[in-house]
Amino acid sequence: QVHLVESGGGLVQTGGSLKLSCAASRSILNLSTMGWYRQAPGKQRELVASITRYGVPGYPDSVKGRRFTISRDNAKNTIFLQMNNLNPEDTAVYYCNARSQGADTYWGQGTQVTVSS
C-alpha cells in the first residue's frame, strides 16, 4: 500500500508555469511506474507523463511541444511535474498515479490547476 499526496496546483495566467509534487508514504524505488494524469470537466482522465523506476520518462503524443517534464527524487519519495507555457486547455485536476510491480494501482486525491486567459 502507498499513499500519494499531490501539491503545487493553483491559478496561473496563460504562459505561466507550475511545478506539481507528489509525495509517497513509502519508498518509491520498488514501484514499477509513477505518473501524472489529468481530468478536465466533462472529459476522461488522461495520461500526461510517466516515469519508470529507472527514471525513464514517457509522454503521450497528446502532450504537445514537451511543455511538461516529469522527474523523481527517490531520496524524498517524490515525483514532480514541471509545466511550462500553460494555456487554458491545461485546466484540470491533476492526479498522481503509482503502479506496483504486482500491478496494484494507487491514486492521489488530485490537485486543481486553473489557467486563466
Description:
The chain is mostly beta strands and 117 residues long. It has no helices and eleven strands. Strands 2, 4, 5, 6, 9, 10 and 11 form a seven-stranded mixed beta sheet that branches. Strands 1-3-8-7 form a four-stranded antiparallel beta sheet, with no helix packed on it. The chain is globular and about 40 Å long. The mean pLDDT is 94.
Share of residues in strands: over 45%
Question: Unreliable segments (pLDDT under 50, ≥5 consecutive)?
Answer: none
Number of helices: 0
Q: Could you report the average pLDDT, rounded to the nearest whole number? A: 94
Number of strands: 11
Taking the sheet with the most strands, its summary is: 7 strands, mixed
Summarize the structure.
The chain starts with a strand and ends with a strand.
